[in-house]
Amino acid sequence: MSYLEFIYIADLLGVAVFAVTGAIAAPGKRIDILGVIVLGIVTSLGGGTIRDISLDLHPLVWVGDTTYLWVAISSSVIAFFASRRIQSPRRTLLFLDALGLALFSILGLQKALAAGAPAEVAVMMAVITGVAGGMIRDLLTGQIPLVLQRNGELYATCALMGALAYIFVYGRLGEPSPWLDISAMAIIFISRMASLVAGLQLPEFIVRGHRLESPAEARNLENTEQ
C-alpha cells in the first residue's frame, strides 16, 4: 500500500467513524432517518469543509470525490438501523469520537501542509478539522459541545498536542510517513481516552477571592432573578 492510499483509507475511515457518532447521538431526540443522515454528513464532513474553505481549496474534498459523501450516508444509515437493535452507551460515542478526533486532526494537518500553509496555520487547521464536526453535531442535537464543556475533560487540547508533536518530528524528518501519522494519531486518541478515565482538565479562569457557584446554586439564583 502506498502512502497516498494509506491517507485516503484513513480519511474515509474518519468519515465513517464521525458519521456514526452523528447517528448514535440522535436517539431520544425524535429525529427521523433523514435527520440522522444529515447529522452524519455534517459531523463527518463539516470540519473538512471549514478547513478547505479557510484554505481556499477547491473543489471541496467531498465535492471532488463523492465517495466521501456516500461513505457518510451509508455509515449513517447502518448506524440508524443498528442502534434500533443494539443499545449504544455514551462511552461508545466518546470512544468513536476520540478515534475520529485523532484521524481527522492529523489528516487535516497534512492537507494544510500540502496546501502550503505555515506550520502554525496547519496546527490550527488540525484542531478545526478535528473538533468542528463534533461541535456542529452537538449543537444540532441540543447539547453543549464537548470542546466547551468544563466536565468534558481534555478535547481540543488533545488535537493540539498531537498536531504539535507531528510538526516537531516532521520538521526533523523532512517528509511524512505512515508511522509518523499513526504515532501522532495515537497521541491524540490516548490522551483523550486518558482524560476521560482520569478526569484530566485544564485549569479554570477564576478571579482571586471569587467562589464559583455550584450548578444547583446557579439554578437557584436564576430562578430567584426570574
From TrEMBL:
Glycine transporter domain: residues covered: 9-83, 95-170
Membrane topology category: Multi-pass membrane protein
Coiled-coil positions: none
Domain of life (superkingdom): Bacteria
Location in or out of the cell: Cell membrane
Keywords, ordered alphabetically: Cell membrane, Membrane, Transmembrane, Transmembrane helix
Family, similarity comment: Belongs to the UPF0126 family.
Main location (coarse class): membrane
Name of the protein described by the UniProt record: Membrane protein
